[in-house]
Amino acid sequence: MKNKIKTIAFDADDTLWSNEPYFQEAEKQFCRLLEDYLPQHSVSQELFKTEMKNLHLYGYGVKGFVLCMIETASRISNATIPVKLIDEIVSIGHELLQKPIELLSGVSETLDKLKGNYRLIVATKGDLLDQERKLKNSGLEGYFHHIEIMSDKKVSDYQKLLKHLDCKPENFLMLGNSIKSDMLPVLELGGYAAHIPYHVTWAHEQHEPVLKHENFMELKSIADILSYL
Ligand SMILES: [Mg+2]
To answer: What's one Pfam family here (predicted)?
Structure first.
């Protein structure tokens, strides 16, 4: 891989900063709100069902998550949920959209070392405005040549991104916490992929089997990438 990599793309949520813990906290609040209708773990299962059903319509991010909570609440209450509870669900979403940005360890130091030697970009899913807000508040904006907020991270989405960047797959390295979204499609295209595990992963992004591929690297933390370049 040495000398081949020209562009390095970073996933954002749970790679540059924490995200999933905020969603899990929000989900717990939601499950507690509805425990008069169903046990909390069943509310959580119902919410996940709604999210999977709507993913192709809403994509990823807080706004879709809020709509899914409202839809789930309506379904499990047989459309009897008090408006006050809907208000509280909306507030859960508003809180999520105002969470502080907590950079993960080693992020700034690693970007500092890479800057100038590579074209650095962010490749993330999520709501456009929210991801822009997080990037701005992260203080990292200045490191990146390009920010791509993607509706999905399938092979075809990365193909489009590479085309836009005028970058060949063999000159492209992606770093991220999701094997499914950040690693597999990039490897399929012939790029390089480095996995930085995060301690919690959304059920939809979970991937069990250990990945073996000549272009794949398993890192302990983001700074470990420096020893491969
Ligand atoms: Mg991520």
So the answer is: Hydrolase
CA–CA dist 168, 41 (Å, integer)? 45
Tokens representing 138 are: 């992260």
Ligand 1 centroid from CA 12, angstroms: 6
Residue ranges of the domains in the chain?
Answer: 7-17+102-228, 20-96
- What CATH number was assigned to the domain covering residues 7-17+102-228? 3.40.50.1000
CB 170 within 8 A of CB 4: yes
Q: Which CATH fold would you assign to the domain 20-96?
A: DNA polymerase; domain 1 (1.10.150)
For residue 141, how many other CB atoms are within 10 A of its CB?
12
What's the CA-to-centroid distance between 211 and ligand 1, angstroms? 17
DSSP lists the bridge partners of residue 149 as: 124
Q: How many angstroms is it from 174 CA to the middle of ligand 1?
A: 11
What's the gap in Å between 2 CA and the centre of ligand 1?
Answer: 25
pTM here is: 0.93
Q: Which residues sit opposite 7 in a β-bridge?
A: 119, 172
For residue 156 the two structure tokens come to 């075809």
Question: What is the 11 CA–ligand 1 centroid distance (Å)?
Answer: 6
Say what the pLDDT of residue 208 is: 65
Q: Helix, strand, or coil here: 174?
A: strand
What number is the average pLDDT over the span 208-213? 78
**How confident is the model over 121-179, as pLDDT tens digits?**
999 999 999 999 999 999 999 999 999 999 999 999 999 999 999 999 999 999 999 99
